[in-house]
Known about the structure:
Blueprint lengths: L2 H57 L2 H11 L4 H30 L3 H29 L3 H24 L4 H26 L9 H35 L2 H38 L4 H25 L1 H9 L7 H16 L3 H7 L3 H26 L1 H26 L5 H22 L3 H18 L5 H14 L5
Amino acid sequence: MRESARLGRNFAAVATAQFVAQLLTFVLSATIARTLGPSSYGLFVFGFAFPSLLLLMVSAGLDEVIAIDVAAEPSRAGSYLTIVAAFRLPLAVTAGVVLWISLGVLLDDPFARNVTLVLGVSALIQAYGSTFLAFFRAFEKLQYMALVVLIERTFTIAVAVVLLWRGFGLFEVALTFLAGAGISLTLATTILRRKFTWFSPSVDRPKARGILRKTVPFALGAVISTVIPSTGPVLLTISRGPVATGLFNAGLTLLMMVFSILTLCHVVLLPTLARIRTTSPERFTSILQHTQRFVFALGLPAALGGALYAEQIVTLFFGGRFAGGGEPFRILMGAVAISTACIGNGAALAVSGRQPQNLYVGATGALCLVGLSFVLIPPFGPVGAAVAFLAGSAVTGTLGTIVTRRYVARIDLLNALGRPILAGSVMVLVLLLLGPPLWLGVPIGAVVYFGSLRAVGGFQKGDWSMLRDAMRGALGRAG
């Protein structure tokens, strides 16, 4: 199978699952917002944002190590499963105890404590279950990961929405997430045992020490990736109250739906690049270049359109009470353009043994975000949180591109970014001149953008070949 076909197959599997999962989650978020109001929605957001900081104790960067090492040498699977699962179990228990104690200190409202505790425990179970999902990724059989995600999320969201419609509240919704986490864990372990591997009879201590050494930069990177989306909601809840959190998170939820696609690109690229670097290193830069060109060409018009119609988009999904979330969302859309322009940097650095440099880049961006959040959120609220997020993304993207070009591969940035920027400028100009409403602006903008992109030579011969093979893989027509 050509690499583009393999990538297409894996991306189609996880993209389908992620799209459905994100759509269902968004339906639940909008239902909570419309049914219970900004305050309850803000508490729901906090119930995931605060415990996510403790999930780092469980994740510890181990999933990335599994994906890279087992993809390069599948015979390691059984021993890696035993080591990682045994290491994570006491970490999950410790994180649960810390969560329970910290909530008693930080929250006075018993209801808020209970909701956050239940959501936090469900997230801890999901984090432990990611041990088993990581092996599907390592074997490049992401359709099994997609299956687990789809079943869990369909159950959780369907039950939660029905409970809300029948008059139940936030605590009952939290319990459905706990049940869904148990289903996910059970299903993942069952598939892994029947299709791939199982625990080895003993723990290889030298290999365990080697795994733990490798996890350090990935674990620190996980800290950064968790802090970035959590800082705004947590600080807003503490300094401005749950209403401000709800307004900001309306835009952040929409942003994360777009970012989930970028996460999928990373999920698919990481094991593929690890294998290519070992077997066909001469193809490494080419795969990276094509991926970056495609993703930016699709991400830029979404970012520009989201910024132009920010308030209409937010109120369309969350209702008129969330009109104040339009301006933060407009600012956050800048992060989409930046992140799509830098897609693949993290995966390329990771598989090339440059995870420490990747860590330094992420840490610098996160420090910028956190520092600006403390400065801007108290006086400016949700808008300040959005500006801090955008600034952190800009720092991370710029430094990541510099480091990748220096140590790994010199991507032709003008070739990858120049033509989409030109086509995007034409799209924005036309939409500003015509001023159509959202329902009409979306198709007009799409026609103008892709027409302009084609006119300036944004589609190249190699791109069509890669797209054709990727589609064949996605449709299961490649062996």
